[in-house]
Write a structure and sequence with these properties.
Length: about 190
């Protein structure tokens, strides 16, 4: 994945929206402290939403050769995402894995890219877990798969109930692991 957004980003509209937001707070967006803020905020969101431009079919291409079907589990992949309800960050880690089936095996970094592709979108944690699971199923056709996300949501910690630091865990399992998951998913 590149550092530049690969989705349509209207920079001028974004920067004007930030200026309007600052004005709505009674601030001067042309003042010396804030004059570069619209550009910085647009750059930030361009990076934060880069997952919309990722082609997962290009990322999840099987490796050549016939590899023994052993479980592949990446534990505690860090991620940062953005709550679509409040535009507030949530961050945590993902554990994802699969037992190769007819779809073959992919490079380990490709699994990290799947997590990033969905984290770098406006998101809710439950949907993100389902999207990662669906990508594994669609592109790898594994004999078993698992996705677990554990995250802290600033929208819950900084507003509403104002209860910071409460981890939220979402776990999805399929195939052979549905009845007997590996320890990483328990």
């Amino acid at each position: 994945m590149t550092d530049q957004p690969a989705f349509p980003l209207d920079r001028a509209a974004s920067e004007e929206a930030v200026r309007a937001l600052l004005r709505s707070f009674g601030l001067d967006p042309e003042g010396p402290e804030l004059k570069d803020t619209p550009t910085r905020v647009t750059d930030f969101w361009g990076e934060r939403l880069a997952g919309y431009g990722v082609d997962l079919s290009a990322e999840l291409k099987p490796l050549p050769g016939d590899l023994a079907p052993v479980p592949i589990i990446l534990d505690r992949i860090p991620f940062v995402s953005t709550c679509e309800h409040h535009l507030a960050p949530f961050e945590g880690h993902a554990t994802i894995g699969y037992l190769p089936g007819e779809g073959g095996t992919v490079g380990l970094s490709k699994l990290v890219r799947v997590v990033q592709a969905y984290a770098w979108r406006l998101q809710v944690q439950e949907r993100m877990a389902h999207q990662i699971a669906a990508a594994l199923q669609q592109h790898l056709r594994p004999a078993a798969w698992g996705v677990q996300l554990v995250a802290i949501h600033t929208c819950m910690g900084h507003r509403g109930v104002k209860t910071p630091g409460v981890p939220v865990k979402t776990t999805l399992l399929g195939g052979r692991w549905e009845a007997d998951p590996p320890g990483s998913f328990r």
